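Sequence only, no structure available. Ideas?
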Amino acid sequence: MGESGTIAASGSMQEADQADQFATLIAENWHRLYRFAYHLTRSREEAEDLLQQAAEEAFKAFHRFRPGTRFDRWLMRILYTTLIDQVRKERRRKVFELDSLPLSALQAGDASDPEAAVEGSLDGPVRRALDALPPEFRAVVVLVDIEGLSYVEAADVLGCPVGTVRSRLHRGRLALREWLRPYVDALKRGDL
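Reply:
I predicted one. Tokens follow.
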């Protein structure tokens, strides 16, 4: 077989080990990554497509992943970047209007089903208001207020300065507060 055959076999084993390690990390973080993708896209199909594309890009770049760092945060950043790239390629910005969103009833789901967990975790008006946020504000609100990341971690995931995270979070929360004011007032009056 010769020396080059030994080197080639060794390279193939390394690649197989790397693929196994990547697959294990994806499996361990799947639910969290899917929740984030679903919050960003609000569609099962789009979330699955986004996660698939981000996983493919992450696998190609897996040699740059630093062991000892958080794989989920690393892949969330790739996922968010992939979404932003898709938006830019479409060369159009979607304008979200609260009135145009479906008013379907929520059903609490099984915690093992990430989509059901997302759907069941938020009250209908809150979920619709979150859906109405532009993607860059929604991403920050989801990461900080729902997923519990710190500002620094969210900035790392989104690839922006901490000040940008703070600004987007503030603006997102203000928009949510404004959209939810009638709902909160109705709750206070006991109308709901």
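Residues 3-10, 92-111 have pLDDT under 50 and may be disordered.
Hope that gets you unstuck.
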